[in-house]
Amino acid sequence: MQITTHSADETQALGTKLAKRLQPGDVIAYFGDLGAGKTALTRGIAQGLGITDIVTSPTYTIVNEYLTGRLPLFHFDMYRLGSSDELFDIGWEDYLARGGVCAVEWSENVEDALQGAIRVTIEKDPFEADTRRITIEGGSRFEAPGL
Q1: In a domain, 147, yes or no
Q2: Rounded to an integer, what distance in angstroms lies between the CA atom of residue 26 and that of residue 74?
Q3: What is the average pLDDT across 27-44?
């Protein structure tokens, strides 16, 4: 499924809709350049899960945990990791076992550990600064109209 958004607010609203289809144990693997909108989409997912905390990028902390929604949200930033071995060192399997949703920025750094993830690719439009082309792949729940 491919969706075009024209502002950060629209990207966030898409995340809110996406959250309605998420289930315990889902992993969202983000692919996209710096400033593409990965954190904006995650803010929407948090909102859609009923999380009221302020969602920020976990660049320096590696993972931010949000536990107040219908499902926990674990927001990872893998930019500083060099391999999936480092992901397992920080307790990846423990996060998966907690029954929440794992949203993983910079997934390309640990892609071999993310089999079965919902793949979200966000591309900036080269001509329109706020326009994003968002491709969601990963199962029939995300192929149906109305997302």
Answers
A1: no
A2: 11
A3: 90
Please give the model's pTM, rounded to 2 decimal places. Answer: 0.90
Examine the pLDDT at 60 and tell me if it is beyond 80: no
Rounded CA separation 54/128 (Å): 28
Total number of domains constituting the chain: 1
Residue 70 has a CB neighbour count (10 Å cut-off) of 14
What angle do helix axes 8-19 and 38-48 make, rounded to 10 degrees?
A: 40
Quick: pLDDT tens for 116-146. 899 999 999 989 889 999 999 986 666 655 5
Give the domain range for residue 22: 2-142
Q: For position 103, which CATH number holds?
A: 3.40.50.300
Q: Tell me the DSSP string of the chain.
A: -EEEESSHHHHHHHHHHHHTT--TT-EEEEE--TTSSHHHHHHHHHHHTT--SPP---TTTSEEEE-SSSS-EEEEE-TT--SHHHHHHTTHHHHHHTTSEEEEETGGGSGGG-TTPEEEEEEE-SSSTT-EEEEEESSGGGTSTT-
